[in-house]
Amino acid sequence: MKLKGVIFDMDGTVVDVTYDWNQIRADLNTQGVPILMYLNSLEEPEKSEKWRVLEKYEREATEKARLKPGMRGFLGLLNQKGIKKALVTNNSQRNVFFLLEKFNLEFDCVITRESGLWKPSGAPFRAVLENLGLKKEECCVVGDSHFDIKAAEEAGIPHVFILNEDKERFASMPAEVFSSAEALQKRIKNLLEKDNW
Ligand SMILES: [Mg+2]
To answer: Which CATH architecture describes the domain 5-17+67-192?
Structure first.
């Protein structure tokens, strides 16, 4: 089995963004429920009002987003090797298109929250596998959070790589953690040279 596809998360993975999720959760009063699920469970007019609050935070963060250092080189390596690239995010289509255009990036498959398939469910990853015609063992997930790990587990994708400087946070999780895109690129480059990874 060879590596044929990489499924990327967007915020914190492909781009560096600053979200104060604790502040956002407090503002929305999500009471421990994942944000999108919480918002969708509300009645109008509260629902629309709170969606607008989230969208404002997202718009501001997106406008300030930077491409993660080393990411262009990593994506370039995958292109060169003919590896498929997918982008799966709980962010909106509007913000995804803004960033793809701003940084001139292309993915073979893009799944945004408008699909109704949200991490930490494995559903959006399963949709990618179907869309690209790949098996779960032929793909890996590259993310930056527990949501990415949970979604990969649920979808049965065995290889998960996390970009995060705080390795401790992922100590007991089924994922390899890298502090930079360059370090991850090195690892993937090695894996691509193996017939059975
Ligand atoms: Mg993320």
So the answer is: 3-Layer(aba) Sandwich (3.40)
